[in-house]
């Protein structure tokens, strides 16, 4: 699922913790004993676009089998994912999370500005991590880099 929200300012506590957004609404339904479509674990990537106006673009990924990311299935991916999602080192996360930008359709100027070179985001932007037993949210703060803020604004 994907949400794009216009807000009054960057919400550093994350969208997964926001009481009016999808994850907290689903958790509330579960606590009330009502059906919920929330998977066992959610990974969310939240791109906070500096304003005004401010936006949060949140990409939600369902993890139906937690052994795929908690290291218990023994694969190299699972072991690395366990360290990333459940480990204590924000420095490791800052040095590991990489994005490969790509704009398939858009004007030439935007495509050229964004490019397609992979980037370790922790070297470019301030990253914030929000973790609970049900979700992991990575918040990319585009306001921490004037270049990144400008590039993201081009894409809006």
TrEMBL record:
Source domain of life: Eukaryota
Domain Protein ENHANCED DISEASE RESISTANCE 2 C-terminal: 2-154
Record-given protein name: Protein ENHANCED DISEASE RESISTANCE 2 C-terminal domain-containing protein
């Amino acid at each position: 699922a994907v949400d794009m929200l216009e807000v009054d300012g960057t919400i550093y506590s994350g969208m997964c913790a926001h009481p009016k957004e999808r994850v907290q609404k689903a958790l509330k339904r579960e606590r009330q004993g009502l059906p919920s479509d929330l998977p066992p674990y959610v990974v969310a990537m939240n791109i906070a676009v500096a304003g005004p106006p401010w936006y949060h673009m949140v990409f939600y990924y369902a993890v139906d089998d937690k052994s795929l990311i908690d290291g218990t299935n023994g694969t190299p991916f699972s072991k690395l994912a366990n360290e990333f999602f459940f480990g204590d080192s924000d420095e490791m996360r800052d040095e590991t999370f990489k994005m490969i930008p790509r704009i398939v359709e858009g004007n030439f100027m935007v495509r050229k500005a964004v490019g397609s070179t992979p980037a370790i985001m922790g070297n470019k932007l301030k990253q914030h991590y929000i973790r609970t037993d049900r979700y992991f949210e990575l918040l990319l703060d585009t306001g921490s880099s004037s270049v990144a803020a400008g590039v993201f604004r081009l894409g809006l």
